[in-house]
Amino acid sequence: MWTYNKIANNTANIPTPIIKGDFVFCSTGYRTGAALLRINTDGSGKQTAEEVYFLEAKVLQNHHGGMVLIGDYIYCGHGHNKGFPICVELATGKIAWRGGRGPGTGSAAILAADGHLYFRYENGVIALIEATPEKYNLKSHFSMATHHGRSWPHPVISNGKLYLRDQQSLLCYDISEK
User: Fold this and answer.
1) What predicted TM-score, i.e. pTM, was given to this entire model?
2) Which of 18, 21, 56, 62 is disulfide-compatible with 25, CB 3.0–4.6 A?
């Protein structure tokens, strides 16, 4: 129906795009970058992708670990295999904040729940970051009970439990309010 290959690379295009209305935000690693597209449909139903903006890799590249949209802001890890926490305004591409290295190393898989971001770094560190575009606010962090080498599974929350897979191990943490 339409194509856009400016952020494609010849290795892997891992993150799932974010969709909001007629807009598609996409990012990838391997020195590529990020883009916001507007999908236009003409009277006959033909669709085209119009680039709203493009961000060079040094500004934003989400290698793997995904991105989440909360309100009008995208939260993700930035950098090829780095996972630096970052918040970007969807409509403009303006960086709201950069969190620096953060408490973990390597790429970070991200999950949002209850006004917070859960960053699961490939070295087994989990960071709890406030989900606000106002400023980077690391609330807490801990190391997983196991660490079987580099891994990138996304965290999952269900019924007040945080589930983390670490290669052959499955860990469960009670994060419900007592």
Assistant:
1) 0.93
2) 18
